[in-house]
Amino acid sequence: MWDSLWVDVGLATMAGTDPYGRIEDGAIAVKNGRIAWVGPREELPGRPEKLAAVVQEGEGGWITPALVDCHTHIVHGGQRAGEFEQRLMGASYADIARAGGGILSTVAATRAASLEDLVESAVRRLRPLLAEGLTVVEIKSGYGLDLDSELKMLRAARAIEARVPVTVVTTFLGAHAVPPEWKGNADGYIDFLCDEVLPAAVEQSLVDQVDAFCETIAFSPSQVARVFEAAALFKLPVKLHAEQLTDLGGATMAAGAGALSADHLEYLDADGVAAMARAGTVAVLLPGAFYTLGETRRPPVERLRKAGVPIAVATDSNPGSSPVTSLLTTMNMACVLFGLTPSEALAGVTRNAARALGLQAERGTLEAGKVADFVHWSIDEPAELAYRIGFNPCTTVIRNGAPTLS
Ligand code: NIG
Ligand code: FE
């Protein structure tokens, strides 16, 4: 006997060969927090009431895998609306960063914030994402940039799991910017991260994966390589902010290190695409940052497609380049700005986002045996999710087999 069974729904399983993995008149069953059965209703092995303790009517809507936001900086102090104003008056993101604003202004605010402030403000920003059917969020450090503040950020990220129904994947991003104390000595700062901060964070079980910002205004590929070597000592998976503003060959380097993902990628070249394809590195596109910074160079979507590189889409939620707290809006941006199809956008926030976090065996598609995290939407067809702007058709979020909101 199953715990519950949904009928009278379309299923976008995001598995198989069809772009959505569509099952028009489907059924999906849950047992012990896992998907027990999924398929066409007519293939159910009996009458619904005989099969499950609870039968849910989907009323003709659609069920998709729950959403995964695989790249965020949602834990941080302060906000940067002033910079938004400055950019609109002509300053560039890089100008502001070089003048000590940008990431470093959030570093000051994050250092000044208490752990509780960080948790509280991040939870407030997470709520709209949860209301859109998010059940997994990746959260980076990188606004502390000293031992205590990096640990504080990671602890705040972990603490979120106890406050709201979400699974948090934490990422150590100490190599986000050179902090003021290390100005002019980026190499010394990298040593400090590798020798002191990362080991302390790992020791306290605060790190699931390791990231770095590879950019002319941040760290060079050889500095990033040292961070990746330190991650390898702890057997932690790596990923990289690469080719956002310039092409430093970061994605090729990340792929060579077996990275789970390379993220941003507006300036990715053909060699980078080929290296990612060979390594199975996911391309995480962040249209919220492209949109907010008014960028014009788009990531090479057609090349990524042709090479078979899995494409994920994430909010990059952060106070500077992407003050975005909606994955549905981000899906729309990925379609309108980058030319993804609505099914690619949905795969980007489900199947491929799970893969960018190394969670593909457990999450990201509707398949028997996977964690029963899925969303019921009041929509006529799955393309509606990427099509509307500012409308949330989510009716029910199921996490570990049980509803989180109705
Ligand atoms: O992903 N690129 C680097 N980090 C963030 C921006 C962080 C910030 O501006 O505060 C990003 O866009
Ligand atoms: Fe980022």
UniProtKB/TrEMBL annotation:
Pathway: Amino-acid degradation; L-histidine degradation into L-glutamate; N-formimidoyl-L-glutamate from L-histidine: step 3/3
Binding-site list for Zn(2+): H71, H73, H241, D316
Cellular localisation: Cytoplasm
Entry's Gene Ontology molecular function annotations: imidazolonepropionase activity; iron ion binding; zinc ion binding
SUPFAM superfamilies the record matches: Composite domain of metallo-dependent hydrolases, Metallo-dependent hydrolases
Listed GO biological process terms: L-histidine catabolic process to glutamate and formamide
Residues that, per the record, bind N-formimidoyl-L-glutamate: Y143, N318, G320
Protein's UniProt keywords contain Signal: no
Domain Aminodeoxyfutalosine deaminase/Imidazolonepropionase-like composite: 26-45
Catalysed reactions listed for this entry: 4-imidazolone-5-propanoate + H2O = N-formimidoyl-L-glutamate
Keyword set, alphabetical order: Cytoplasm, Histidine metabolism, Hydrolase, Iron, Metal-binding, Zinc
GO cellular component: cytoplasm
Entry EC no(s): 3.5.2.7
UniProt: 4-imidazolone-5-propanoate binding residues: R80, Y143, H176, Q244, S321
Cofactor info, note text: Binds 1 zinc or iron ion per subunit.
A Pfam family that the UniProt record links to this protein: HUTI_composite_bact
Essential cofactor(s): Zn(2+); Fe(3+)
PANTHER family: IMIDAZOLONEPROPIONASE, IMIDAZOLONEPROPIONASE-RELATED
Family under the similarity heading: Belongs to the metallo-dependent hydrolases superfamily. HutI family.
Protein name, entry field: Imidazolonepropionase
Gene: hutI
